[in-house]
Amino acid sequence: MNSFATLLADTASFLPSRNFDLPESTQHSTRALDGFLAGVEARAFRIAQIALRHEADALDAVQDAMLRLVRSYSNRPPEQWRPLFYRILENCIRDMQRRRSVRARVLTWYHRAFGDDAIDADGDALEQVSDPAPIPSAQAQTDETMRALEVALARLPARQRQAFLLRSLEGLDVAATAKGMGCSEGSVKTHYFRALQALRAQLSEYWS
Amino acid sequence: MKEEQLDQDSFRFARRVSQLLEQSANELPASIRSRLTSARYAALAQRRAGSSHTGVVWRRWLPAGVAAAAVLAVLLLQGPPLGSGVPQPSSGGSEDFEMLADSSAFALAQDQDQPGQGGDVDYEFYDWAVYAADDEHGGEAGS
To answer: Which one of A132, A161, A200, B134 has the minimum C-beta count within 10 Å?
Structure first.
């Protein structure tokens, strides 16, 4: 959350007038990057949100992925951006899950060592460690089917979930999904098929 | 089992899930959309800042360059003098220079280079010179 507060402050200093100092090629590629990121940001957020089950963490993951793409890969051809971006996003999600796991372990140890009173009064950190509840701000997700789908997706192994979301939500073909996941096309097909079977089994009562 | 082997029911299920997910992405709350836009602007602002401040890159390396120059200067001042490991020319070099500077030797060389102008080569002189040198060495050995 703090990073978003600083982000908003930084954004205030972002003025269009600075474009006049830049070469035309840079302005052109910046516009192309802007268009690309604008096109993928919502779906990227949903992918991160389903994996992390936490709105703020998902926003941070998407922001990190955007920064890393712009910093390291913006000079690549635009057709390579999409698989690269989703690979970076998956790494960000994994980093976030690892950090969260360490934080949960530390808090559990702290809780056992010093008792309930030792936990921060607002309990915010513990809430962030595990947040199985649906996000109240997203009105569209209050639908029971959507919630069940999110839970089922979150239960999938990471590679299956990644393959399924890149194919179903982002609409990548098998080759681009393989690039985004850093694996073979055969592995993508297998992961996707297994994910689909698992989802069908879990959601049979919603989709008969 | 792989993706190609999906039956019709699986296809229908996959399509419905896909539509549901797409709909949820399109209906994100305005607050989240706004924060995503801010994140995007911040990432692009970083790129713009990087492009318009290329001078910052070399300035970042300036301290390292100064440190490297200082180390090099210390090595040059305290280490062995440059060229100490290079073999010196033998003293024969100065003898060659003296021979070239000698006017009579120069004349001899000219005679040798231009046989047509100064007559034929004086072989008798060279034979005498060889013998004279042998005698001189023999005399030194004998004494």
So the answer is: A132
- pLDDT tens digits for B12-44? 889 989 988 998 899 899 999 999 999 999 998
pLDDT at A135 over 50: yes
Q: What angle do CA B57, B60, B61 make, to 5 degrees?
A: 100
Alpha carbons A179 and B118: distance in angstroms, whole number: 88
Scored b (16 or more CB within 10 A) or e, B2-35 reads ebeebeeebeebbebbbebbbebbeebeeebeeb
Quote the minimal CA–CA distance from A47 to chain B in Å.
9
ipTM: 0.70
Residue B117 has φ and ψ, to the nearest 5°, of -85, -40
- A30–B10 CB contact, under 8 Å: no
Token pair 């029911």: residue: B9
A56 touches chain B (CB under 8 A): no
pLDDT, one tens digit per residue, over B105-141 is 556 555 555 555 555 667 788 888 888 877 776 655 5
Whether the CB of A147 is below 8 Å from some CB of chain B: the reply is no
Under DSSP, the state recorded for A183 is S
With beta carbons less than 8 A apart as the criterion, state whether A48 and A58 touch. yes
- Cα dihedral B10→B11→B14→B15 (10° resolution): -150
Cβ A160 vs Cβ A198: under 8 Å: yes
- Where does the pLDDT of residue A130 fall: very low under 50, low under 70, confident under 90, or very high at 90 and above? very low
**Which two tokens mark A3?**
């990073």
- The secondary structure of A91-156 as a DSSP string is HHHHHHHHHHHHHHHHHHHHHHHH-GGGS-TT-HHHHHH---SPPTT-GGGGSHHHHHHHHHHHHS
- Note whether B13 contacts A146, CB cutoff 8 Å: no
Token output for A194: 């297994």
pTM of the model: 0.59
Name B23's Cβ contacts closer than 8 Å, sequence gap at least 6.
Answer: A140
